[in-house]
Amino acid sequence: MKSTLRLAAFLAAAALTVLLQAQSLVVYDANTPAENLRSLGNAKFEQTPDGLLVETQGSDAQGKEVYPGVAVVGNWDLTEFNAVEVVAGHRDHKSMFNLTIRLAAGENNLGGQGNAYIADTGVSTEKGLCTVLVPIERKRFQTTGIRRTPWDGGGKCSTLEGNKINSVGIYMNRPMLDWKWTVKSITLKKVDRGELVKEVKAGEVKPFKMPTQADYYAFFDPKPVWETMTPEEFFPFIDVYGQFKYKDWPGKIHSDAELQTAREAEEKDLAAHPGPKGWDEFGGWADGPKQEATGQFYVKKIDGKWWMVDPLGNLYWSHGPVRVTSSSAVTPLDGREHYFENLPDENSDLGLFYTTHDELLWPYYTKRNIQKTYDFSSANAFRKYGKDWRNVYADLAHRRLRSWGMNTIANSSDVAICKMDRTPYTDRIELKSPSIAASHDGWWPFRDPFDPEFRANFHRQLLERKAELDDPWCFGFFVDNELSWGNESSLGYWTLQSPASQCAKIEFVKRLTEKYGEIEKLNEAWGTSYASWDALLQSTANPGAKAVKDCRDFACAIVEEYYKNVRDEFKKVAPNKLYLGCRFAGGTNETFLRIGAKYCDVLSYNIYRYTVDSFKLPEGVDKPILVGEFHFGALDRGVFHWTLIGVKDQKERGQAYFNYVKSALEHPNFIGVHWHQYSEQPTTGRFDGECFQNGFVDVCDTPYVETIEKIREIGYQMYDVRWNKK
What pTM does this model have? Predict the structure, then answer.
């Protein structure tokens, strides 16, 4: 009998082993060195027992787009698998970065966008390894202009024909910086919807705090109704309020009557929470230690911590959202009108919202030649607040912010709301002068600071904003946003690859002439063969790697000229306002940061992390820091994308907000944090497809109560937390 039981147990264990093997297939594992590895984009890699150590470079000096990483070559059948699990991490501790997973079929199909399935995933900000799970999606309708849809888990596009692949790539998508990262394993898996990636034991792989694509399914039903719909059944999938049709969630609006019910409920909430005690009219700390009152905002370091001081001489810590505007959910309609249910007649009252838009972001729509849009958020404000909706919306924004424990309307907001002078505000200017022709086109190409139009145009832009710059409720301006710097030498190389008429290039050649004297000496140093200095000026070719030092030196000269010109013109027009920098993003070049620190009153960063506990400025740099953007989002309220930093649900979203702001309050350099953004992005994506769950309020202007509760918790006590000297 015992032998029979032992045999049964053995057979059961064997069957389980076979089942588990059938549900996973190892593509790469560091414990088993592989010979079938190929470099992508000139990446360097080394196999070790700790993982595949990969070193990748940012975009090269020519400005070419690069996709550096590693591919595993072989033959696999995806029929039984619906996900790829990757254990990876970085060794630089710069910030979170994105890796792209690429499953490809066809001969030599290691790069490009050919017959492949492609999906992006984020990697934790912490050093060490984390586990991410990327679904392999097979069923898609044609839905353009949305970063994530109800079924795709975030992949970009699927052109893979059949289930046979012969390479699995993992790479960085056009990185601007050099990185060092690790791949421990790549495994094909079969997982059930709603299954979360299991956290592994501490010390082996660090749990990945950001949700995986498997978490994406947790929001949806195990068998969602749209899973088997035909295109004819699925479209339109957005209702008249701009919401996803086929799912319900707390707070979803089904009628205009529900809009009014939500409005009444919020008025009761605002009455019960009038705002923090001990604040002055600007939101400064009236009960705190007094400073000199100048009638303007300024910065000051007190007992080792940086602060702002408000016009009344009270300590002030800036806490608020960007883009306080009713036009947050402007979505393109070009070729997509069939997405939407019962779009209004253009001659009706609701037809107005084919023409409303956000002033700062509208150039991004026109840049992409988007012809037709609809502003769902403003349309819902009209439905909710009536014909005087603009004034009601503006008044409500100020009342909300004070009630929520906030004291700032951050940049990219409706100027009319800012100019009501009820909440301090800031804004931003994006330079419009001639660019360095061969520079990377990030949000915008890099402007040429040696061009005479640089100063002249910026001066004109400042005068256009003179009313704000003279307003004591405005504490300062950002100039530009998330500039595309490249690496330390890129700006120099981009300049040399620009036309001969480029002012920066003329200046660069002048400096080279002064340094080398004769073109032959430059040719000897660079390994080039220019016939004359004019030949160098006329050339748009990449001079090669030996020019890197001179290109690096001139890149620094460009950055110096950029900051100096901006600072000088800004202070001419607005001597009492704070120059808040250019909102650095990601792992900004330290050399350029040090240059900027000489000229900016405040250094600004867009920092998408869970906290800023570990954030440090370079050695010897001590400046006040303002967070220009941060946010968290989840997938339990009908939006398809959880944002750049995701969390499990609304409760965790509120706690993440609390933790982030508290970490900034306790950091000696931070003088404020600005959330991106006040109101939600459109369900079907804005100009670039972003469809984040990133609002304090949704597309129907209904606050997310779990987030607001935690905003109040930290906002009402923020001065006590900041002042605490422990």
Answer: 0.85
